[in-house]
Amino acid sequence: MDDETTTYDYVIIGGGTAGCVLAARLSEDPACRVCVVEGGPSDVGDDRILKLRNWINLLGSQFDYGYTTEEQPRGNSHILHSRARVLGGCSSHNTLISFLPFPQDLDEWVQAGCAGWGPETILPYRTRLRNTIVPVGAADRNAIAQDFVTAAAGRLGVPVVEDFNARPFTDGAGFFSLAYDPETNNRSSASVAYLHPVLDRPNLTLRLETWAHRLLPDSEGRFTRIQVRNPDGSHSTLEADAEVLLCAGAIDTPRLLMLSGIGPAGHLRDLGIEVRADLPGVGENLLDHPESVMVWETRGPLPPNSAMDSDAGLFLRRDSAGGPRPDLMFHFYQVPFTVNTERLGYPVPEHGVCMTPNVPRARSVGRMWLRSADPAVKPALDFRYFTDPEGHDERTIVDGLRIAREVAATAPLNDWLLREVAPGPDVTSDADLSEYGRRAAHTVYHPAGTCKMGAEDDPMAVVDPQLRLRGHDGLRIVDASVFPTMPTINPMVTVLLAAERAADLISPGSGR
């Protein structure tokens, strides 16, 4: 039985990247009562979370929801999609690589019916961001990563980029910009930057380790009531006098909508869920940045300094038809990332490095759905990796594997390398590289698009350009699920910008 209802002005479901921004901005008005519902614990004072370089140990930990992947006939069916169970969400869990979206990425949103989301509107919000975003600090610039940058720029004829956020770029090699403090290796996550300084606000309530499992309409049909499971297992109902702001991410936001009867009517009826809003786009348009991996054994141990062991990268533009944006990306890992190659039978070197060819604008599109009406049952995720009819994604990986070999054979990087471990120098044909590249493929944990924003005449749009649930009042969605298309680069900063924009849409002038 539920406890009596507790009422706030705004209830934010999900204390992740977007939720932290909204909580800080909306609670600037001392008369505005804001509640954040977060399924995980606090990150305050917890160095397991706060130290950026520990990110790899968070995968599969108590701070990870760990969603499985449906069978992928042309990809890797064994991928675990990490979603963070902690305040700050994925900004408390990821590598905090921080890129502004390209202007052309936002132009595509406008073309997809998202009026008011062009670069002239969204990019100026960068001045509002509270995160400290800086290129990898000098003390963290590992010598082999530096030699990777030198070798890549020299072999491929691309510039060395000192700051990837200084201006848009078409190609280049360099150290990433990260949201962190180089002096301490502490994260500048959304929770650290936005929430930690304001936790003592009397009008801000955090309900941690609290799971939202159903939205309910009020007497006027507005989806402003939320049923939650409290840390002790009891259940409560929260109500928003103004709006519910759903910020649970590209997996849990559509999951909660469908559990609440908001989604594709036929699917919901099949599960015995009462249909409250027939929105066929909920759970569709599942996007990601797939990538593969090549592994080299090094001649010995590597220097110990690093920000987060994947500090440098490479961008290339192979096809100018996509405009002035890269269409191939590499992360350079200063550790052997072998979770997928080991499963395929490749050895694990004691000391090694990796390059990960990544598909920045993948054309394969998937979907997600509920397996059960039981909120405890995880949803099904089918990313449909490498299924685009033109073979663009597969070709990108094959090209990337070949280019990675070119860079590895170039001084000064080649002086560090003993041998190619995976896939090994005998794997040379396009067909064999494709087979290896797809089976060893992984994710960089960028699911998006499952509640896409769009115009009124787009039947698959879930929210309008004001981020309001289509056809219903009282509920907005603010997270990567609203992306109509995937930004070319790591999307965390795009989520931060979207949340700052949302704060103005919800409460004009907030944060100014």
Automatic annotation (TrEMBL):
Q: What is the lineage of its organism?
A: Bacteria, Bacillati, Actinomycetota, Actinomycetes, Kitasatosporales
Query: Which intervals hold domain Glucose-methanol-choline oxidoreductase N-terminal?
Result: 249-263
Which Gene3D superfamilies does the record associate with it? 3.30.410.40, FAD/NAD(P)-binding domain
Domain of life per record: Bacteria
Protein name per UniProt: GMC family oxidoreductase N-terminal domain-containing protein
Q: Name one Pfam family in it.
A: GMC_oxred_N
Q: Which family does it belong to?
A: Belongs to the GMC oxidoreductase family.
Q: What InterPro entries does the entry give?
A: FAD/NAD-bd_sf (IPR036188), GMC_OxRdtase (IPR012132), GMC_OxRdtase_N (IPR000172), GMC_OxRtase_C (IPR007867)
User: What SUPFAM superfamilies does this protein's entry cite?
Assistant: FAD-linked reductases, C-terminal domain (SSF54373), FAD/NAD(P)-binding domain (SSF51905)
Q: Which species is this UniProt entry from?
A: Streptomyces kunmingensis
